[in-house]
Predict the structure.
Amino acid sequence: MSRSPGKVYLIGAGPGDPGLLTLRGRQLLSEADLVLYDYLVNPRVLEQARGDAELVCLGRHGHGRIMSQTEIHQRMISAASEGKTVARLKGGDPAIFARTAEETAALEAAGIEYEVVPGVTSAQAASSYSGIPLTHRDAASCVAFVTGQEGEEKGGAALDMAGLARFPGTLVFYMGVTKAAEWSAALVAHGKPGETPVAVVRNASLPQQMTIVTKLANLPQVLDEQKVRPPAIIIVGEAVTQRTSLDWFASRPLFGRTVLVTRPRHQADSLVDRVSDLGATVLVQPAIKITEPADWTPADAAIRELASFDWLVFSSANGVHFFLERLTHHGVDLRALGHARLAAIGPGTADALAEYHLHADRQPEEFRAESLAESLLPEVKGKRVLLLRASRGREVLAETLSAAGAEVHQAVVYQSTDVTTADADVVAALREGRIDWITVTSSAIARSLAKLFGDDLRKAKLAAISPLTAGVLSELGYQAAAVGSPYTSEGLVQAILDTESRQQR
Ligand code: SAH
């Protein structure tokens, strides 16, 4: 049976900030079987693709093989002919310096259906994220997008420099860094004043964004002195003088900082988002892995007699998820919890219960085992208490409650194991002093980090989620530079911000 042919979507991925992908682009990307992407596409945009989609980078100058334009066409056509949905992700917008016309012509010739989805072009991002308008009622009534590399490969027509020098508005150069000496001199030679203001915006909309303002005559020297490498947008014209006085993007509190998040992958997102919204570059290297317990027998036995417990005590969000999913596995639902009352160690755990429409009857003021035990003490004598816990963890809860006369049962509902090898890029970044902060969100993570990185851990500041975690770090010989209060990820981020602002004063 022949399959119906697939379709190709040429999608603008935006300039860098993954939040600038359109909703249409995200939807199509999430449906694609094959994703062909330009090297300038932010890897975080690729996270929108399906887990089982094939992701192919089309190469980068100076970094391994670059797929030729013909090969790209063949790849799209053959995948679509096999019935696959193809997302061809392009940096910025597909209509601007992106060879889209060649690709659509090849698809048409092969009878392949396609659609084009616009994206935010880097000139727009450079403008919005640096506060420099491209047009202005007093300074520029039109704008031109210009390539700084015209004719180079094609042996084609050179730019009309005389025309550009006379252009009555803003000139925005793409691919302008390498040949800046030539084109800026040509503009001046054709009468554009050397005093014309110029802004260079490198890595627009990314945490590494850098903006330099100069004048046309000095551009090549400034690019050279500051060692500016592509990708950069160069804005030439009076509009540059209209830059906002507030640099909203680069003045965010963690701008220019790099933060390493060490949570298990499935729990990292909210912390990653929070820290990157504050302007930081975020790297992720999980220090522990969370999986099913090696042996479900004790938990299963407890589930069979669930209705006989007076209290179910959860000491982490992971415990909530693994335990309640296990109920589903046994074909029972929340009614199996009977009249048991529920205790949560902190707000994250209570939130996890709330996702299942369960209310935590008890939640201590301080998010640690001692406080939880204390809050339960007055009412556990003679009661059956089930602790749903990790494969490793502290015994304080069980010991304190037993001592108070509770009948304590423990069931391991998930396993926490150390990650034993770190990503080479993360290791190098840490070693070279390129990481400013490492978040340490549990004692298990603290211990694992010490094994993973050893002495290199001293090359960044450590942010511990609680005094307990800071204590574990200190026992291991490391000093926490910030300690969360409250003991939540919000509290941790706040502690980083407080330490940063103290150090700036
Ligand atoms: N289609 C893309 C342009 C591709 S040409 C778009 O619409 O943006 C590649 C050039 O785009 C680079 O040389 C640089 O001038 C510019 N560019 C791409 N990403 C950029 C970024 N994050 N910051 C500044 N310039 C960028």
Summary: The pocket of S-adenosyl-L-homocysteine is lined by residues 15-16, 40, 90-93, 96-98, 121-122, 126, 174-175, 201, 203-206, 230-233 (CB under 6 Å). The mean pLDDT is 93. Residues 32 and 85 are 5 Å apart (CA to CA). The radius of gyration is 29 Å.
